[in-house]
């Protein structure tokens, strides 16, 4: 039964007790009122284990994690690059990473978990805006994602944007177990 639900432990009715039911649980859906009744006939083993404080759900590999790791490892984008800033502010939103190349050129990097056309469009808008700033021009773009859809690669290539596929496990320093040639 899908959430939200409540669990109530009930005393079984006399006919259920006569049938051998020792305990009855009722799970009730909070919105629809649907209920599921579970009848317990025998308890073979019952134990309780203290698991400590619940840390809550921690999602690993979100866009912010990729961005942080990439900021620490800008060599994944190219050699001899330096990080200018993460979340570089613009009038239309922050550019994930702003880098400088040895020649003084600026590189705007848009980071996504799954790269699609919308991400390329977003980076295109940033490039157009940043290119107007004489302190930053010329600005090139890099679209970096764990997975880049073919349509996004085609659009990026058409707009002069380089695509980089990110290996999150490798960036974290964890061996993925996938055989590699190099």
TrEMBL record:
By its UniProt entry, which InterPro entries does this protein fall under? Endonuclease_NucS (IPR002793), NucS_C (IPR048301), tRNA_endonuc-like_dom_sf (IPR011856)
Q: Which NCBIfam families match?
A: PRK03298.1
Protein name as catalogued = Endonuclease NucS C-terminal domain-containing protein
Q: Which organism is it from?
A: Microbacterium endophyticum
Domain Endonuclease NucS C-terminal residue range list: 62-180
Name a GO molecular-function annotation. Answer: DNA binding
Classification via Pfam families: NucS_C
Keywords, A to Z?
DNA-binding
User: Can the keyword DNA-binding be found in this entry's annotation?
Assistant: yes
Query: According to the lineage, what is the superkingdom?
Result: Bacteria
